[in-house]
Amino acid sequence: MANVQKLLPAGLLLFGIAFAVRAQHSEPLHQVGTIALPGVEGRIDHLSIDIKNQRLFVCALGNNTLEVLDVRNRTRLHTISGLREPQGVLYAPATNRLYVANGGDGSLRIFDAATFGLLKTVAYGDDADNVRYDPAASLVWTGYGSGALGAIDKDGVKATEIRLDAHPESFQLEKSGRRIFVNLPRSRKIAVLDRDSRAVITAWNTGDASENFPMALDESHQRLIVVCRAPTRMMVLDTGTGKTVASLPVVGDSDDVFYDQQRKRLYATGGEGAISVVEQQDPDHYREIARIQTVKGARTGFYSPDLDRLFVAVRKQGSQPAEIRIYQPQ
């Protein structure tokens, strides 16, 4: 290589170096670090974040623990053990509390996020899953069982329930409206709920696509993004009409998708072993601009617009311990 460099004109050599540097940073996501999770076994499910203290909360479903991580120093701070297949977690900054949904016993457990002491256990009966916060009403919503969304107040008192015809996976709440959009993969549709009337007001079929698990909401453009696993497809729906305005192939076995409003991009994490980065050209047109390789089985994550980081959960692979990979959008 040294002999080749001697034969190259100086200008051409510098151009080649500059091109290589640009190519290295041309990908829309660049890994900037990891947080190791030694001793964590099995599947990792959903995540939440405490922006003020830069703490990341990770549902280690197969390990029956909630892992508390220091994002700034990239270390593990604490482990909450004794859980039953934790699937969903929500950090509520207004109360500094953690809400952890357990699939194994159907409970939603409330913890003090300062001491990590258990404050209350709310029984939902079966398969408590995704958790979301409604700041306008100060309610915590949880999907559970064979088909329901339940809401509690900050102290764990049950406030309401909306029945569904199948188990709810990811769901999103409007900030400027009263609707909740809910993925129902077992009935191959998306239910639209009204938080005031506490009822299902309509439902949109996913057509020939099924296994619609992850969901994101681009409220500014009235677009709902749903990723299906069979076939592997990202669908974009108009939230006013329910009409599918775009459909494109993405990474397989996806369990999370996030909308980056600043860059007009979507990040879909897939267990196939990659992150699909999709560009929103306009509200009706989308294209995959990159597929960032990760690890097989790494299908959950969390994108924080405040920190401008995408966190991807990687389960233990042989002798390689579990970890959280940190990506910075470019």
Task: Offer a quick outline of the entry.
The chain is mainly beta and about 325 residues long. The protein is built from two helices and 28 strands.
General description of the model:
By secondary structure, this protein is mainly β. It folds into two domains: 40-163, 7 Propeller (Methylamine Dehydrogenase, Chain H); 214-330, YVTN repeat-like/Quinoprotein amine dehydrogenase (Methylamine Dehydrogenase, Chain H), CATH 2.130.10.10. 6% of the residues lie in helices and 54% in strands. The protein has two helices and 28 strands. The chain has helices spanning 2-7, 10-24; strands spanning 29-37, 47-50, 55-60, 65-70, 75-80, 86-92, 97-102, 107-112, 118-123, 131-134, 139-144, 148-152, 158-163, 171-173, 179-184, 189-194, 199-205, 210-218, 223-230, 232-238, 244-249, 254-260, 265-270, 274-282, 285-293, 301-304, 309-314, 322-329. A four-stranded antiparallel β-sheet has the order 1-28-27-26, with no helix packed on it. Strand 16 and strand 17 (199-205) form a beta hairpin. It is globular, with a radius of gyration of 21 Å. The two termini are 31 Å apart. The model is unreliable at 2-8 and 12-24 (pLDDT under 50).
